[in-house]
Design goal:
Length: 367
């Protein structure tokens, strides 16, 4: 009588783009559909940006930061210029601080929208994808109006921003946030209590608070596990301490919690933008800073709360017009540290939901 037995086998998920949200390869060791081991393979689009920065003037590095997390280029710009301003002791006009907050929160909304739309598409829902891109286009119109670009903005400058905003931009932003709350309600009507969406996300890919802290997770992943930590509150930068907003958290740390935390974050971004528009002062949009800026010898690290978590620049200066060393703390890369252990025991179909709720951008991972 022939003995029946199963054999373990390997499945290469990626490095093609669908469901991996970038050029990422996951080597899965399987027993049927159950994952026994998951090995992430990165570096397919490695750009060597940190080394390139050592051979560029400080000002010339700003456009490179756009290409890291290309879905939140405003946040990348902001983190970098804040680090340079801290080391150079550059004072920023009040109007600039408000403009930076408005841009950062608009970019948070745009980033969360493309995440939500692609997550829904990964799980088989087409309509939320179309809805999310509908509103994202409106944000990109505002960015094009102010920065002249729709993806890589190159808008922040040392001591200010590239150009002031127009009255049309202010009116357009006010109109957008006035209507956007009802659009989020539309997304929730499609997904939040949808039986199929709940089956794919509820109690799937659970990250405990201990695991989240132990693996150095940040952003929505950390807050979905119940840790109320947001750099806009914990280590306030710019003028975030002046604004009233909540820090949404989850309970189980599963895929659904990671979804609902980002949904609620978009509602909080509306509050912040509304307050920033109401308090936007008149004045200069840029301080006088030399183009060929030389930083004093020393080092600094400045993190911000990007849409994906703690995004920071560590700069070492030797007193010249180029950084001696530049190190980037990329949240997508750090958040992926848990993926090998997290995927064990789940099925192949769950990988799509788990990885989708991580919201990684590989340009940032392979910086």
């Amino acid at each position: 009588m022939t003995e029946l037995k199963t054999e373990e086998y390997y499945l290469s998920m990626g490095p093609q783009h669908p469901s991996t949200h970038g050029v990422l390869r996951l080597l899965l060791k399987l027993d049927g559909e159950v994952i026994l081991q998951a090995t992430p393979d990165m570096g397919y689009i490695h750009r060597g940006l940190e080394k390139i920065a050592e051979n560029r003037l400080y000002l010339q590095i700003i456009p490179f930061t756009d290409r890291l997390d290309y879905l939140s280029s405003m946040s990348n710009n902001l983190a970098y210029v804040l680090a340079v301003e801290k080391l150079a002791n550059i004072a920023v006009p009040p109007r600039v601080e408000y403009l930076r907050v408005i841009m950062a929160e608009l970019n948070r909304i745009a980033s969360h929208l493309i995440w939500l739309g692609t997550l829904a598409l990964d799980l088989g829902a087409i309509t939320p994808f179309l809805y999310c891109f509908r509103e994202r286009e409106q944000v990109l119109d505002l960015f094009e109006m102010s920065a002249g670009a729709r993806l890589t903005y190159n808008y922040m400058r040392f001591g200010g921003v590239a150009r002031d905003v127009s009255t049309e931009f202010i009116k357009g932003t006010a109109d957008f946030i006035k209507k956007f709350g009802s659009k989020i309600t539309e997304y929730e009507a499609l997904l939040t209590n949808n039986p199929i969406f709940l089956a794919r996300t509820k109690q799937v890919g659970i990250i405990t608070p201990k695991q989240a802290i132990g693996y150095g997770l940040s952003g929505p992943l950390l807050r979905a596990s119940g840790i109320k930590y947001d750099l806009r509150r914990a280590l306030p930068y710019s003028i975030y301490e002046k604004f009233s907003f909540d820090i949404p958290t989850g309970e189980l740390g599963d895929c659904w919690d990671r979804y609902i935390v980002r949904i609620r974050e978009m509602r909080e971004s509306i509050k912040i933008i509304d307050q920033a528009l109401a308090g936007l002062p008149a004045g200069d949009f840029k301080a006088k800073v030399p183009l060929n800026l030389k930083l004093p010898a020393g080092e600094t690290y400045v993190p911000i709360e990007s849409p994906r978590g703690e995004f920071g620049f560590y700069i070492v200066s030797n007193g010249t017009n180029k950084p001696y060393r530049l190190k980037i703390r990329a949240p997508s890369f750090c958040n992926l540290s848990i993926i090998s252990n997290l995927l064990k025991g789940w099925k192949v179909a769950d990988v799509v939901a788990i990885l989708g709720t991580f919201d990684i951008v590989l340009g940032e991972v392979d910086r």
